[in-house]
Amino acid sequence: MAMNKIAVRTILLGCLMMSATVFSQTGPARGDRDKIAASQAGASPIYFEVSAFNIPAIEPGNFNNELECNVRGGFPGFFEKVNQGKKVVVAFIGGSITQANFGYRLQTARYLEQAYPQARFQWINAGVSGTGTELGAFRIKEQVLNHRPDLIFIEFAVNGAYAPGMEGMIRQTIRENPNASICLIYTILTGQTVFYQKNELPPNIKGLEQVGIHYNLPAVNLGMEAASLEAEGKLVWKGTQADEGKILFSEDGIHPTTAGGNLYAAAIARAFKKIAAAKQLKKKELPEPLITAAWDEATMVDPSALEGLDNAWQLMPTDANPNLKKFNPWFSSVFTASTPGATFSFRFKGDMLGVFDIGGPEAGQLEWIIDGKPVKIMNRFNSYCNNRYRGQFDVVNVPQGIHLVKVVLSRQKADKLMILPEDKRADIIEHPEKYDQTVAYLGRILLRGTLLK
Questions:
Q1: Using CA atoms, how far apart are residues 218 and 154, in angstroms rounded to an integer?
Q2: Least buried of 66, 238, 353, 449, by fewest C-beta within 10 Å?
Q3: End-to-end distance of the chain based on CA atoms, in angstroms?
Q4: Which pLDDT score, from 0 to 100, does residue 37 have?
């Protein structure tokens, strides 16, 4: 029997890897990947109020396709609380489409407030542009689970669709709060409407759906109505403007216009009507992992918890720095150093570690020395740091075990001019002194494991 379970898991993992490979060959295109990565502009407030925005009213509409929504176990905890008129905390975690104001999130929040006026809603925006389920698994505890949500929307299909990371977010949620309801939502990008038009799922979504099936979670394919309208000649998926009488879904093939976001939110509205009418199943205990339990232990640690910071590292409130202020919802403060050789160290038990930090023109490099051996020079400047600041992360993989970690602000300087594409070099050529620095802004330490004293 044990061999059979191993064989089944191996086959499923192979299918997931195959789906990821197919998706990498069919999309997103390089230009689309660049738009996803470059969309990071800053942090949004964790809490938001629906009344603060002029949000269009959403109606479910008459679109009908059985593939659009898989009910599975439903939202028992959510419906129990809204029907009792209690306070309900709803969180959205995803990439730039979730972080954006009119990608679907605000329209969905308004619809739910209208559909369940007896409930008192609190809304959480944990969208981080340009990132996927890996960082999502690191940050879900701090940015979502610590707020005790009753319902969590998870949206990462166009941001790599990394199924192990999504499984980690699901497993952390079930372990932390088994009564929390989870809704998997799948956005799409250029070239993927053709799958829905054939009544098929895009390969990347097939991989995520294997995880949804394993944990019996509701899932919504948000792009099916848009795909149908495109086939009927009533919608333009990507463009600067649509012909009269047609809907312009997006300008870049990824991020919806308000009209496109309305279509995404309408799919969620239809899903809620369908799920509400179905039998709600109580949560089960945390099952065995489908792919891996490695991401169960992913977490973020405030650098202030580290005992091995030398005096070159200083605590800086982000709201006191005009360049860093926009990241305050993620990091109320950062530890910063500008002296090469500045060091911090710590011990941890696990198999992955890294940083969630802020990059910019002055960003330098971090040398990672683990168990006495240099393992990586992590450049915190990249091609998106041309006269702009952005949240970013990077990790180091190590063998499972207890490790002594030392991180040094490197004396080596990267060739920043060559890192920047030719069309983004104007600022560094005009202001080379701004780039000729070595600075780090540490927001969080990322650990897949446990910090040790």
A1: 11
A2: 66
A3: 41
A4: 54
pLDDT recorded at residue 29: 53
Taking the C-alpha atoms of residue 339 and residue 334, their distance in angstroms, rounded to an integer, is: 16
Q: Both tokens of residue 276?
A: 């509400």
Q: Domains for the chain: give ranges and CATH numbers.
A: 15-276 (3.40.50.1110), 302-452 (2.60.120.260)
* The pLDDT value given to residue 17: 43
CA distance 265 to 164: 26
Judge whether 308 and 344 are in contact, CB under 8 Å.
yes
pLDDT tens for 412-449 read 999 999 999 999 999 999 999 999 999 999 999 999 99
% of the chain exceeding 70 in pLDDT: 91
Q: Which residue has the tokens 């065995």?
A: 288
Distance, CA of 81 to CA of 92 (rounded, Å): 18
**Model pTM?**
0.91
